[in-house]
């Protein structure tokens, strides 16, 4: 049953405005989604339906958030799974799970009176890399094949439209079968945030936090080059924890600075000196 899948989320109110930076990715994604929203019009033009969108980029840059926002934008239920889940949890029954996932997506969309479903497959490279090149990895093949079969079966005039969104930070590893026309034929690149985007992300994660007057998020954005959105979320969280530890009712600039150092120490960041 559907509840056996982890990562099912009932959160529908997550929007593009809750995602900092990523303006080009949001723009490209919305354009692709507008295509999905006007499926009947595009059928009339004889254009094939959009079945899959691939989000590529470094970890923690907001790919999952973009997929959730896409669900809200298209009035779809959001169902999440990941490549490694198929290997670790559903070993041996991957193909069956894919069938169940599509079936459950349709059922849930109907039950919740939504227009469609977005099936998010994180780490899709795990399923779709080097197919058949490793002996003993037949299970990956079956799972991927079934995913492609289900995607091929999606039609413009289906009652519930299903869109698969895959995410990967290893787009060099992808099976070419995934990128064939009619499959993941839109690729949206999600990059590390530049300074302005970092500031935007910091502001989003400080919305509900008591900041002292000496805080300059602009300075923190300046000092955090190379950080992903996930790192910046950690900075905001860590700064609040440091303040609490000092029994300070407000979060000060030195808490943020310490938090930046802490997050930086915890990661071997691939920092580009230019931004
Ligand atoms: P992974 O490749 O590791 O799965 P991802 O790209 O899917 O990562 P998300 O799961 O979307 O990344 O982001 C992780 C967390 O980082 C989010 O829950 C959010 O708190 C924060 N975050 C990442 N990017 C952004 C962003 N652009 N704006 C606001 N928050 C962000």
UniProtKB/TrEMBL annotation:
Stretches assigned to the AAA+ ATPase domain: 49-194
Known EC number: 3.6.4.6
Keywords, comma-separated and alphabetical: ATP-binding, Hydrolase, Membrane, Metal-binding, Metalloprotease, Nucleotide-binding, Protease, Transmembrane, Transmembrane helix, Zinc
Top-rank lineage group of the source organism: Bacteria
GO biological process: protein catabolic process; proteolysis
UniProt KW Metal-binding keyword: yes
Entry annotated with the keyword Hydrolase: yes
GO molecular function: ATP binding; ATP hydrolysis activity; ATP-dependent peptidase activity; metal ion binding; metalloendopeptidase activity
Record-stated family: Belongs to the AAA ATPase family.
Protein name as it appears in the record: Vesicle-fusing ATPase
Species this protein is from: Syntrophaceticus schinkii
Part of the intact protein present: 48 to 322 of 493
